Amino acid sequence: MKVLYFAWLRERIGKAEEEVDPPASVVTASDLIEWLRGRGEEYALAFNNPKIVRVAFDRTHVQPGAKIAGAREVAFFPPMTGG
Amino acid sequence: MKVLYFAWLRERIGKAEEEVDPPASVVTASDLIEWLRGRGEEYALAFNNPKIVRVAFDRTHVQPGAKIAGAREVAFFPPMTGG
Amino acid sequence: MSEVRISEHPIDTTAEAAALSGLTNAGALVTFSGICRRDEDGSPIAALFLEHYPGMAEAEIERHVEEAKTRWPLLGVRVVHRTGRIEPGETIVFVATASSHREAAFAAAEFLMDYLKTRAPFWKKVERAGGSADQWVEAHDKDNAAAARWRKPKDAAE
Amino acid sequence: MSEVRISEHPIDTTAEAAALSGLTNAGALVTFSGICRRDEDGSPIAALFLEHYPGMAEAEIERHVEEAKTRWPLLGVRVVHRTGRIEPGETIVFVATASSHREAAFAAAEFLMDYLKTRAPFWKKVERAGGSADQWVEAHDKDNAAAARWRKPKDAAE
Known about the structure:
The complex is a heterotetramer, with 2 copies of chain A and 2 copies of chain C. By secondary structure, chain A is of the alpha+beta class. Chain A is 27% helix and 23% strand. Chain A has a single domain (2-77), classed as Ubiquitin-like (UB roll). In chain A, strands 2-1-5-3-4 form a 5-stranded mixed β-sheet. In chain A, a hairpin with a 2-residue loop joins strand 3 (54-57) and strand 4 (60-62). The termini of chain A are far apart. In chain C, 32% of the residues lie in helices and 35% in strands. Chain C has helices at residues 13-21, 56-71, 102-119, 141-148; strands at 2-7, 28-35, 39-40, 43-52, 74-82, 84-86, 91-99, 122-128, 135-136. Chain C is globular. Strand 2 (28-35) of chain C pairs antiparallel with strand 2 (28-35) of chain D, so a sheet runs across the interface.
C-alpha cells in the first residue's frame, strides 16, 4: 500500500511517500495511524495528535473509522488551508 | 418649482422638465400629482396609476405623503430598473 | 478608497478591477459584471437603452457605498454604471469590492447590487430585434425582496 | 462550460474572466480573487508557499464545481488555484461564475470558495520577512463554519 504525507506531516516524517505493508490487524485509517506511530520517533511526532490528522483513500476524503480494504493510496495531511 | 419626469412618465407627458407654480393647497407629493393630473390628458395618462410613481425631492427619495415645502426640484419616475 | 462613475462609454472591467488590485493588504477582491443579455422575457433583443437621473444617480450610489463601508471592513469599492444604448454582451454595471476578508467583499458587492437594482434612479428600455415597439422594463418583485434583506430594524417603516 | 486548473504560474485574472465573458446570455458574472496579503496574523510576510495533493486537488475541486452546477443554474465556472511560492499582491486563487441571475452567480462563487478553503487539499506555509522560521498556516474555525452553511440535511452526519 502506498502512503502519502503532506505539509507538516511530510516534514516531520521526513518523506513524502512510502510503501508500507501493515499486518492484518490494521483495518481502519485509525488503526493505520496507530501502527505508523510505532515505527519511530518521527512518526510519533507527526501523529502525536491523531484527531487533527485528515485521511484520504484513493484521493477521496474519509473518516478515521473508514476501512482500508481495497485502498491503493492512503494519504495523511493536516486540516486544509487552501483558497 | 422645477419638476422632472423620467422614463415612460417623460414620454407620456412629452417633456423632461418644466417649471410649475402650484396653488398653496398643494402641500404633499401626492397633492402635486393630483394637481398635475388636471393639467391635461397627457398628465392624466402619465399619472393614471399614482401608486406606482416614485418621487424625489432635491434628488432624495421621499414618500408620497412628504411635504414639498422648500423643495426646489421635484422628480417623478417609475420604479427603478438599473443595475 | 472608493469611486463611483456613470458613463455613456463602454466599461473596461479589466482596468476597473486593476484599479483595486494594488490595494494594501486586500486579501479578497470580488467583482460583479451585469451584462446585457441577448434575450429578455424569452425573446431576442437588439439593445437596451439606459436612462438615468443625473446628479441623483451618483449621489444615491455614493450614499450606498458609504453605507457599505460602515457595515463591512472594506479597503476599496468601485461602482461604474453605463447609460445610453447598450448591446448584448456589453457590460451595464460593474461593482468591485476589496477587503481583508472574503465574507465582507462578497456581502458588500451583493448589497450594492441589490440597492442599485431597486434604489438607484436608472430605467431600462428594451429595443426589440425585428422592429417591434420599444418597451420599458418592469421592476421585479424579487429585486425588491433581495434589497429588503439588508434593511435594518429602524428602516422597517420605510 | 467549466474549467479547473492548478498551476505554478501566475494567474492572469483578466484572461480568466474574459474566457467566461463570451457566454451566451449570461447576465451576471462574479469573480473572486484571493490575494496574498502583506501581513499574516499582524506581522509582515515575505511569501506564502502553497503545497497541494496532485490529482486529488483537481478531482476535489471538480466535484464541487459539479455540485455547484446542480445547485444553481450556471452557464460557466472557472477555478484556478496557484501552487508554489507566491509573493504579496499575487493571486492565490481565482473563481469566476456566470449565470443568467446574479443571485446564482454570487452564491456559487461563495460556495466554491468556502469549499476550497476547507475541503480542497492545499496547505499554506508562511515565509516570514526577516528570516524567522517558516510556519504552516492553521485552519480557521470560521472557514469551517462558512462551509457548514452549505451542508444539506443528508450530510449532517459527516
